[in-house]
């Protein structure tokens, strides 16, 4: 009887209220709801509904990752603490590639053998190959900004090498423009990955520098480079990465204090140009740490922390400062994967396109 009442109430709801209710459910549930009937599929794929999703869920980033071994692509949804396997990607050959950076709902993949870039939406699995760049044979940093909104206005991509040479791709012009950083700087490279992680805030891309210690930024609209000297926290290891949360620049790394080593999070203090420690990973998530592999942005981090006890994947919500153990990705047949080759955080948006 009660179930019948709810069916009648739902049927009588105006379409605008149905959209408002459905926009609050997890994105993975929306995909399942699209298979209920044609009417629901039409409702859940309308531009009006997509706009409601963006308004409600823009602050909930996901992770797009590649696992080691047999290359497996998967998307992690932190709202349900679950991995979703990705099938064939449209527009990308079935070869080795790695996600390197993102901006809002778009992700950049790089073909690790041919140095080709692909830009697209991990949710729709639709990607576009970019034209070859000209002057940089080996990049060490790649960043991305979206011009205006998620669905229009285009985007720009920055790639830079150790010598300070760089190129910027403009999606509207569909071409690369070369340049050179107007000051001497050495970017901070991950000891294990050989490149530097970038973050974007508005029109500006940021990355860490090691000589001098600090941060380097590039504004894709004004085309201006800037350099900020920020001393590295004492006893911080080489495997440190930059991240972003709510427009703030964060630093993640392994801190060795006396005889113990832990994962620490710092926030950049813009006035004093210094790092302020804001959190540490609780010891219950790891044993004796040997190294850390971390990536993420837009308020969400995913850390691979092998230790003397086990290999652990841990997600960190920078807004709520919550640590969560992430389950291993399970392949068909029960095989598990927990060692990640690379990944990025992105905002799940069905309308983000190239």
* CATH third-tier fold name of the largest domain: Neuraminidase
CATH class of the largest domain: Mainly Beta
Which ranges are low-confidence, i.e. pLDDT below 50, for 5 or more consecutive residues? Answer: none
Largest sheet: 5 strands, antiparallel
Structural class: mainly beta
| Number of domains as seen in the coordinates | 2
Rounded to an integer in angstroms, the radius of gyration calculated over CA atoms is 21 Å
Q: Judging from the principal axes of the Cα atoms, what is the shape?
A: globular
Overall CATH architecture of the largest domain? 6 Propeller
CATH superfamily of the largest domain: Kelch-type beta propeller
- Counted by DSSP, the helix tally is 5
- Count of beta strands: 27
Intertermini distance:
49 Å
The amount of helix comes to 10-25%
Q: Output mean pLDDT.
A: 80
Q: Hey, roughly how much beta strand do the residues contain?
A: over 45%
